[in-house]
Amino acid sequence: MSTEEHVQQFFSKQSKLPLPADRTAFLAFRYLDEGLIDSLGIIMMINELEEKCGVHFSAEELESYEFQSIGGLISVIERLKSGAK
Q1: Which pLDDT score is estimated for 44?
Q2: Domains of the chain
Q3: C-alpha–C-alpha distance, residues 8 and 15, integer Å
Q4: Is 58 exposed, middle or buried (0-12, 13-18, 19+ CB in 10 A)?
Q5: Residue 73 burial (CB count, 10 A)
Q6: Residue 8, class by beta-carbon neighbours within 10 Å (0-12 exposed, 13-18 middle, 19+ buried)?
Q7: What is the pLDDT averaged over residues 22-26?
Q8: Cα(76)–Cα(62) distance, rounded to whole angstroms?
Q9: Could you please report the per-residue DSSP string of the chain?
Q10: End-to-end Cα, the chain, rounded Å
């Protein structure tokens, strides 16, 4: 399963709201600003994605602007998987 599929699967099962159907809108979607998940959901997201994707988020990554959108989250995970900084 790809990183994007893992992320989409997580948000599909945990979100309080429907996900954008358009891929571009989905990737640009700012899940925290839109209330897609709450604070407990963030913890669950971090744990699940670290486990399923084999990565570990640093505090810096969690606080980054990139981490605030679904596409940015996918990019962070892909970068971590590749070992790039």
Answers
A1: 94
A2: 3-82 (1.10.1200.10)
A3: 10
A4: exposed
A5: 25
A6: middle
A7: 94
A8: 9
A9: --HHHHHHHHHHHH-SSPPPSSHHHHHH--TTTTTSS-HHHHHHHHHHHHHHHT----HHHHTSSGGGSHHHHHHHHHHHHHT--
A10: 23
Rounded (5°) CA angle 20-1-4: 30
Cα separations in angstroms, 3 against 23, 24, 71, 79, 80 = 14, 16, 10, 11, 11
For 29-49, how does the pLDDT look when each residue is reduced to its tens digit (9 = 90+)?
Answer: 999 898 888 889 899 999 999
Alpha-carbon distance of 8 to 12, in angstroms, equals 6
Q: pTM to 2 decimals? A: 0.91
